[in-house]
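Dock magnesium ion; give full complex structure.
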Amino acid sequence: MSSLIQQVINGLSLGSVYALIAVGYSLVYSVLLFSNFAHGGFLVIGGYICYYSLLKGGANIWVASLAALLGAGISAMAVERMAYKPIRERTPITLYMLIASMGMSIVIENIFVVTIGGRFRALPPVIPMQTVNVFGVASTSASDLLSLVTAVVFLVGLQLFLSKTKWGLAIRAASYSLRTAGLMGVNVNLLISLVFFVAGLLAAIGGIFLSARYSLYPQLGVITTKAFVAAVIGGLGSLPGAVVGSLILGLAEMLAAGFLSSQFRDLIVFGLLIITLIVRPTGLFGKSVGEKV
Amino acid sequence: MIGNAGPESDRVIMSVRNLSVDYGAIRALKGVSLDVRRGEIAAVIGANGAGKSTLMAAIMGDARRSGGQILLDGTPLPERSYQVVSAGVSLSPEGRKLFAPLTVRENLEIGAFPLKNRGEMSEQMSRVYSLFPRLEERASQYAGTLSGGEQQMLAIGRALMARPRVLLLDEPSLGLAPIIITEIFKELDAINKTLGMTILIVEQNARKALMLSHRAYVLQTGVITMEGSSKDLLGNPEIEEAYLGGRKRQNT
Ligand SMILES: Nc1ncnc2c1ncn2[C@@H]1O[C@H](COP(=O)(O)OP(=O)(O)OP(=O)(O)O)[C@@H](O)[C@H]1O
Ligand SMILES: [Mg+2]
């Protein structure tokens, strides 16, 4: 029983990190209608900024995290300006942006390989890892609880931003029709930059926790594949869908690892994806194309 | 020129000069010029594919102008949509283009995006609600679930939220039953009269548009072929033949 609860907590914790990544990816998808494969790069940028601020900059974890969040957010905006804006201004065909994003993903990864090398690095022990007792029924690591709480705080913050502010409303409108939002007086380039900033920032939080949980290396971004899968299971472009899909995925992975074998993790992930695509191709919360038009 | 209102109405508020728009090899507008006077309702009538929506899109900065100029109160209108709206021109687009998953109130709020603060926004919202009480009753309903007529009211109300100096309407009659069209056009007349709102309307429904407007232009495959007071155009046999369904429906 206690090991079940422990795996559930671990699963929710992992799922919440996926959610941070998936929500940003989904936000970009909902506004620009393409899969940004460079999203994982933002996570890696955040991870390395945090690592170097701690190690070389002598910063504490708060300052290092802040630097990572802002740095990844600004990098995401820069990627959009350099690689996607010139394309979307010339053609409405989003496939070109998707291809450009694959290119940017390779560029970002290789910048790190070339400049600081491909080896694995461990984040200094700034995130508490000791075992904590949960209400006397289970034990789990402090970092799992911390990542769960942090993710919840940021996801709730995002939800408040989207539902309560003027720019949040503009983003919700743009995710239905970017063009019409422009006709309403919204500066769409500014809106897209804002969306990328938020996506980069959320990815960086995921990057910090993942590099603490595992380790940091230029290909850490491939874990974004799991977040993509979660977003598809939840329904592409739907933010609640991205969160629910991520939690399902995190739980499924951890329960499989705990009660079957670690080797089943990825099998379960892609099994869930295939089942979703067969049973409900638009995902749990997905809009059917008809509704969108 | 013609016109029977005061001297105010003779002043041009928006002037389109020699406007051209190309879609690749297709020239959709070929040097279109027209004036909209302060306080009037001007209409552009034309058949399918004449270029009416292209004209609206070009004014709104939603289609690239390949030549010509648009002046608002004598100054060139900016080219980016959000700047056009801030400058005082807003559009109720063809097919309404509401944000279906947002509520009626949220649709109106997004229309007020260029306004400075919430105070200005709620002031304008109560103005729109008093024009369209039905929208206030349905404030929390999703826009996608409104009836066609209500959706058109919301599209017009949303465009009014930015407090435009010139309101553009692209085929407000599209897809609506005749009785609803009459209701909407009555409302447009009231918006023009009570708010003194300047309106440029483009319509395939030529009869309704000519009956509503003060002056009108005829657009034919990207070229203005006729202009004049709406009354004169309504009585013009050429117009009668081409746009008002010939002799059969001479019931105005
Ligand atoms: N995005 C586009 N790409 C290429 N051609 C276009 C585009 N939009 C419009 N056109 C063409 O430009 C011409 C004018 O179209 P427009 O939509 O302005 O006509 P309209 O007068 O509004 O017609 P309707 O009454 O059917 O709405 C048409 O020949 C149309 O096919
Ligand atoms: Mg049209």
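Observed: Strands of chain B lie at 12-23, 26-37, 41-45, 65-72, 75-76, 89-92, 166-170, 198-203, 215-220, 223-229.
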